[in-house]
Amino acid sequence: MPTVKINRRLLNRDKLEAEITAEAVRVFAECGYEGTSIATVAENAGLSKQNLMYYFPTKQALYQRVLDEVLDEWLARMESLADADQDPREVLRAYVQAKLKFSRENPWASRVYAMEVISGAPLYGDQIQSRVVPLVRKDIEVFEQWISAGKMAPVNATHLLFAIWAMTQSYADFSAQMALVLNRKQLTKKDFDDAEKVIVDMVLAAISVQSCDGAP
Question: 100: helix, coil or strand?
């Protein structure tokens, strides 16, 4: 019976922390790190400041959790790239789809991460260096194996990833500008579907192996 009570308490804690971070990510995205206060996040989450600080003792701890969750999501998608036995076209197609889905479903999270990076990653640079860089290098090794095997054109794999990141994440980070250009309040699912087709076509064209007569 004590075990049941402990498990229930842990479940309740996880649920409450998830609710807190869900509010925090929106406030951090709208106000930036410096402009965000624990009191505001607590009020939005329906908690007292003291209650919130029981779970997250400092603003930096809360910010760290928010960025950890963003990075966990992105790294999970990047890990799917590192499989030399798969077809690079299908792997990259799925990667673009997953990145755009994240931008559509989690725009606030993407913006928080972008704001941190744009400012020079003063509070999260070590995590990016230790977690992102090794995985990027692993993915690049797989790309180079595909190139050596003739499965993929000899492109600069690093800049290919940079281009995919820029294209997909912009649909979260700059969605307001895109919506204005499209004369609507916000981007629709069709906009994301259209973006997916264009981006996938561009990426697959970039990696397409040409035959001797120039045909793909």
Answer: helix
